[in-house]
Amino acid sequence: MRKAKLVVALSLAFGAASAGAADLLSVYREAVVSDPQFASARATYLAGQERVVQGKAGLLPQVTATANLGYTTLDARIIGNANFPSPGQKDFSNRVYGVQLTQPLYRPANYATYEQSKLQVVASEIQLSVSTQDLMVRVSQAYFDVLYAGANLTFIRAQKSAIAEQLAQAKRNFVVGTATITDTNDAQARFDLAQAQEVAAANDLEVRNRTLAAIIGKNPGSLAGPADPIVLMPPAPASMEAWVEQAQTTSLQVEVQKTAVEIAGREVSKQRAGHLPTVDAVASYSDSKANASAFGFGNEIRQTVVGLQFSMPLYLGGAVDSRVRESLANRTKAEQDLEAARRQAVLATQQSFLGVTAGLAQVRALEQALQSSQVSLESTKLGRDVGVRTSVDVLNAQQQVANARRDLAKATYDTIVAQLKLKQAVGRLTVADLEAVNRLLKTEAK
């Protein structure tokens, strides 16, 4: 089935992009390097990669070296044994060193920990993907918020300029007697309102710029605006049910919770293993030497031991059973969190899909409204020239055109962001999607 295209002409609303203006892709690349929230997610990912090393360590040999050096002062008093070495004070030193190797042979808890650690690594990788897609959406939202705020300020300033011209004309006409003071007062009121709107719009633009700067770590400067025309594509597939079905299986938030359920299941196995015995292979070597003792003579002992070590917990105060119950409850929680994630994924997909389809319809309607408003403006100007319309009517028509342009810009930007959010909802948002949006922007000055 051929995809319908929606073409939006916005050249009058935005003007040409300045030379050297940053585009969406370059801003995103800066955000990858500079955004502290994403840097935190990346550090969490790197920390998560170490879990498997730690888990595997419980299955590998453990080697421990020990050493001890001491100095003894002994004051001996011997009673009832004439053959014992003579009493008195003795000073002597002793030293002990050794090494022990332990190889786990049967440790169910350690094996469960290792399997759990592999799942934790997977979870950290999925979570990094979640943060990456979130960064794409945050950057895009902030980028288009700046563009819209700039367009809004441009519209208001254009209105203010037109109103100022009408105000000056109304004053001249009043002086020569061809207009009433009411026309002048009405134009003055409109001009004062436009000034107030200009201040608010300028402040909003500054706020939007600072929001984007908080992500990339610097003032974004000039941003590339939309090209002329913009081609907006409808969702593919065009069925909401198809997107919802996809979201339930490929949503990254769902994947995170699926892994959390598996991790919780491994935790149950690990805690249940607290009832089971453990078997280790043990080998040790020690060497101890003292140059004297309480008996008057020194000694040196070298000892090598190789064997098996068996340990069986009999009663630990009920701690194992308690931890098992706790892990079972946590597994139930993880299962409920998974169901909540599925429902949230469905809701986010439905909202984004409706945002895209409604946005496309709104853009189409506003495009038509803009054309009608422009025709109405030309007719009103002609009516003023022939005396059937007033300057106030022209101002109203001009304001209607400006509002249509502004609303069209807002609807266009919202639709673009909704398209990205729809891909995010099903876990399929990639840099290629940002590149596609970036192609809708001007990168060179005219």
Written overview of the protein:
It is a single chain. With 446 residues, this protein is α+β, with helices and mostly antiparallel strands. The strands form two sheets. Strands 2-3-5-6 form a four-stranded antiparallel beta sheet, with no helix packed on it. The chain has a two-stranded antiparallel ribbon with strand order 1-4. It has one domain (6-59, 107-275, 319-438): Up-down Bundle (Outer membrane efflux proteins (OEP)), CATH 1.20.1600. A hairpin with an 8-residue loop joins strand 5 (278-290) and strand 6 (299-311). Helix 5 runs antiparallel to helix 8, helix 5 runs antiparallel to helix 10 (391-425) and helix 8 packs antiparallel against helix 9 (319-385). It has helices spanning 11-14, 24-34, 36-49, 51-57, 108-176, 181-216, 240-250, 252-272, 319-385, 391-425, 431-438, and strands spanning 6-8, 62-76, 88-106, 230-232, 278-290, 299-311. It contains eleven helices and six strands. The longest helix has 69 residues, at 108-176. The chain is elongated and about 135 Å long. The two termini are 37 Å apart.
